[in-house]
């Protein structure tokens, strides 16, 4: 069965009858190596072909579908067709010419890529894949087509007629109709990397880079062709394009692309909604990062990105509902912020349904009453709510609850992403071994969603470096030298981060980096720290908590096993360390005490045997 993007059930409401029939035939009659797109924009042209068909052994085909009946088609030439409508004769574009223009646009995009051109031989400089275009006349039979002389304008081998796309047509016969539209057959099929390059060129909105900090393509890099092409995988693209109305939940492991899909969804909603859109995060650094990148996409005027508690304070101030009294502790103040907003909403002081859409990242760190509050902020006209979460990344202890109990209709509207694309298999295995006692799968909850264990997408790299050193000073000396070495090997400073558990370790980190004259940014809320500046070419220094939702090619984690005031029980510390380790995409360095990294008493975290461990 072919893959249709967006999913058919999301396309049906906007499809004409002939488009629906063709979509079903394409899905049913084509094998699973066919890729199909319906009404998806091509590049920056603004063109929306009805269907794009991509096959590794055949090439790329554009199809335009018309529901014309023979008696309303009063004339047709190379450029136009004349139709009899209720308001009289109407002239429209010739669909074959439309499909030619759309296909030519695609070929022009692909032609720019030397990897997709023949390097030698008779076809030197030409595309390695054939491209073609055709028309589907869903209400005109082949006999009517021939009797009406339509073949004089529309090449017969480039047309599929009504009786050639019936439900009982044989798959081989249907496929042959498509194959007959191609001018030639390639000797070799496209490889998976070549297929990704084709998608990268045609659909720029699904492009991603090697690091999340560069996830959204910048306008000034529009014409730059990177050496390594990365795009959403097909499940991610189909999910991103198929999110429909109503409440939607994406349940995914760390590194599965949840935040990337949220960003895509924000850009899409900003185009189709005329009401404000709210994005809520728990983590200050993630909110700062996401806000900057949505601003770079030109949608910040409509999409408001806020930390949950920051949003609560703004609601109280805007509607004069009263802030909590001064003198409270940070946790008490935050708790009262939320409770005052809930009470003000119940009393009608703060209005419900303020937003056309609400998107929640880090939903696993939201309390039940927070979600219940936020769900009321979506206007019933759109009922558009998207929640992203991963139980394994929850680093704040909450009671278990069902989505239904807080007003989120998740059953039947949940998509599960199992594959971790962020981390190499070596890093993921290492992190999982440290925290596997807190990542045990549980039976499905009331919403039918189990806790997920991560599965690697198969990317490999060097094993994590684990160094047991006698003092924190020794650890930081090594880390400073290692980061300098990685920079000499080609990594930018802003592709590296040092993550720490306690303030004392963080303070020691920035002092050591300063003495080494390495550029750094201490990210956080204290006076000497600053909001995340992703584009600044500096090493990011963050707490474990602040790193949630972010990723870097290289991560260093010092101080493992060293005592600190904020320590929780062993399971919660393991969960925190798991979150920190899974921020690393390619390189991970972990340093700590000899006791924590070389001994294995039950109260400590052992170094997994499969990883490279350097003894003291």
Describe the structure.
The chain is an alpha/beta fold and 616 residues long. Strands 20-21-19-22-23-18-24 form a seven-stranded parallel beta sheet. The chain has a six-stranded mixed beta sheet with strand order 1-2-3-4-8-9. The chain has a six-stranded parallel beta sheet with strand order 12-11-13-14-10-15. Strand 11, helix 9 and strand 12 (303-307) form a beta-alpha-beta unit.
Mean pLDDT: 86
Low-confidence stretches: 210-223, 599-616
Percent of sequence in beta strands: 15-25%
Q: What's the tally of helices?
A: 17
Overall body shape: globular
What does the radius of gyration come to?
Answer: 28 Å
Structural class: alpha/beta
Number of strands: 24
Sheet having the most strands: 7 strands, parallel
Approximate helicity band = 25-40%
Terminus-to-terminus distance: 57 Å
Question: How are the strands of the biggest sheet laid out side by side?
Answer: 20-21-19-22-23-18-24
Can you give me a brief rundown of this structure?
The chain is an alpha/beta fold. It is built from 17 helices and 24 strands. Helix content is 31%, strand content 20%.
Blueprint of the fold:
Blueprint: E1 3-5, H1 8-11, H2 17-29, E2 35-38, E3 51-55, E4 59-69, E5 73-76, E6 80-85, E7 88-93, H3 95-111, E8 131-139, H4 142-147, E9 159-161, H5 171-179, H6 192-202, H7 234-242, E10 247-252, H8 258-272, E11 277-281, H9 284-296, E12 303-307, H10 308-318, H11 330-347, E13 357-360, H12 368-375, E14 384-389, E15 414-417, E16 419-420, H13 425-435, E17 455-456, E18 465-468, H14 472-488, E19 496-500, H15 503-515, E20 520-522, E21 539-543, E22 552-560, H16 570-581, E23 584-592, H17 594-598, E24 612-614
Parallel strand pairs: 1-2, 4-8, 8-9, 10-14, 10-15, 11-12, 11-13, 13-14, 16-17, 18-23, 18-24, 19-21, 19-22, 20-21, 22-23
Antiparallel strand pairs: 2-3, 3-4, 5-6, 6-7
